[in-house]
Amino acid sequence: MLSHDILIVGGGLAGLAAALQADPSLSIAIISKVHPLRSHSVAAQGGINAALGNHPEGRDDNWEKHTYDTIKGSDFLADQDAAELLCREAIPMIYELEKLGVPFSRFPGGVIAQRPFGGAGFPRTCYAADRTGLVIMHTLFEHVWRRRIKIYSEWLVVKLLVEHGVCQGVVVYDLTSGLIFPVRAKAVIFATGGYGRVYLKTTNAYINHGSGIGIAYKAGVPLKDMEFVQFHPTSLYSKNILITEGARGEGGYLINRHGRRFMADYAPQAMELAPRDIVARAIQTEIDRGNGFENEYVLLDLRHLGAEKIKKRLPSVRDICLRFAGLDPIEKPIPIQPAQHYSMGGIDVDIRGATCLPGFYAAGECACVSVHGANRLGGNSLLETIVFGKIAGREASRYVKNSHIREANPSFMEAEARKIDERVEAWMSRRDGEKVHRLLNRLKVIMTEKVGIFRNEKDLALALEEIRNIREDYEKRGYLAGHNRRYSQEMVNMLEFEYMLDLCEVITMGALARRETRGSHYRLDYPERNDKDWLKHTIVTWKEGRPILSYKPVVITKYSPVTRLY
Ligand SMILES: Cc1cc2nc3c(=O)[nH]c(=O)nc-3n(C[C@H](O)[C@H](O)[C@H](O)COP(=O)(O)OP(=O)(O)OC[C@H]3O[C@@H](n4cnc5c(N)ncnc54)[C@H](O)[C@@H]3O)c2cc1C
């Protein structure tokens, strides 16, 4: 049986950072459902935060101010010890990336350039034009390659193996051979990213199904704060390709049908650079009030920035507009609308990236430490992937070296893989029923219509009912029309769909239970934040075949919650 000391599932930034930090004397491997360089991290545009103080207006910045902005941005739901760690580590981490070879944009004189981003008191977002994720990914990937870390591409993990109360490995579906088999590991790190594709409108890549989060949940690992879903204010109308917050950071305006900079009504100080939850709600409110265009979008105007700045600082934004909207932002404003973008919640991990299951760690977007609380600030996610990816790599190595792990029984592992194989056989033996793309579409519609930017009790309850109906159809009538197991996208979708249903159920349950408004979770029927009853993390655990809801306290070190004004 194939065996490694540490298996890292996910080849995005969190996975690559974990691999580079893991102890090189151990046998380490990365598993990814696509080639690592096709992970969603490559799409990150705007930048990565660190209080370097390089910007002329940012000389007084420091990591404590960054911490406070992060906590306030989170609507005080972030764990303050974790936010402190993130922001303190940010500064040495950026210099480390620079030494590894990341080609950051520079100010005249040579220091790393920084731009303003939403919810930040100072311009502290480091960037490489508007291709930040791409360049960091390529740099880290080169180092992984140089270290000859084993990579299994086009392998989908479908189950976590737990025996004797510890994590023992995973079951994979190898797309290239069509086979399903177990892989043994002393420790497993999940770095499987977000789940944007459970929504119709999302900035996320096609592969972002979030199955990793669901796999952990079904293995009994609790999920945290899943009801907090970030909607990005500015995705290109109808295509929903992201137009980075960097465009507003560079000075872009949001304009309604009457030519008005409407953010003056919602965040008079911060204007377009208020945090994302506030800007996304403002845009949606303008559209709903008839102040948008075609009841669908408003405009992002960059024309006053001038051709030179747009070409130099926002080349990808311009390219996206030219290719996908047939317009040049130098000459015309960009039609934009909010779209699902990021998952604040995820696998419940502590500050070391550890879960309650010995030997199982998680980092990056799939995990919830929590540093983003109820709303993430732009530029803090890339930061989290690397800071906590490294921590998870280090901690998993320590675990493997220090603990005496009782080896799993190979026949147990083979049997677990066989169960999945038999399920695939059963789907193939059905002659008709529901195809997975139709089921997925039903799920996306319900999540978009009823579990979106604005929520209420009635819609959330209806959503929960419909999710359970879809699950019944999936279990009783789901089938695979194609019978070829190699490179079967249908099989990938079918295997991941169970977990997508789990995530949607957990998101909706948490949202229904949380009778307050906090950060990205806006309840029309409870429009105020309620610290007395709800300053706590939502925990959902899969126990004895059903989801169980519980809560745990937020770690507060020194910042008392105040009203969030921008
Ligand atoms: C368009 C866009 C722009 C963004 N811009 C910024 C920005 O400028 N700044 C910022 O801070 N944040 C930004 N973000 C957010 C940030 O990019 C992501 O949160 C972050 O890159 C996620 O990294 P990750 O390593 O956790 O996951 P990902 O990069 O999504 O990688 C997930 C990996 O897991 C693998 N995987 C998933 N499931 C399985 C499975 N079951 N089996 C095997 N492999 C699996 C995938 O193949 C992939 O390799 C942006 C996000 C988007 C969508």
How would you describe what is shown here?
The protein has 566 residues and is of the alpha/beta class. Helices cover 36% and strands 19% of the residues. It has 15 helices and 21 strands. A hairpin with a 2-residue loop joins β7 and β8. It is globular, with a radius of gyration of 23 Å.
Arithmetic mean of pLDDT:
97
Present as ligands are: flavin-adenine dinucleotide
The secondary structure category is alpha/beta
N-to-C CA distance = 56 Å
Count of extended strands: 21
**Helix content range of the residues, please?**
25-40%
Shape verdict: globular
List keywords for this structure.
7-stranded mixed sheet, 566 residues, binds flavin-adenine dinucleotide, 15 helices, 21 strands, 5-stranded mixed sheet, alpha/beta
Summary?
The chain has 566 residues and is an alpha/beta fold. The protein has helices at residues 13-21, 63-73, 80-100, 132-146, 211-218, 246-249, 276-288, 307-313, 315-324, 380-402, 410-429, 436-450, 457-477, 489-513, 531-534, and strands at 3-9, 28-32, 48-49, 114-115, 125-126, 150-153, 155-163, 166-174, 179-190, 223-224, 229-236, 253-255, 298-301, 334-343, 346-348, 360-362, 367-368, 454-455, 522-523, 536-543, 546-553. Strand 8 (166-174) and strand 9 form a beta hairpin.
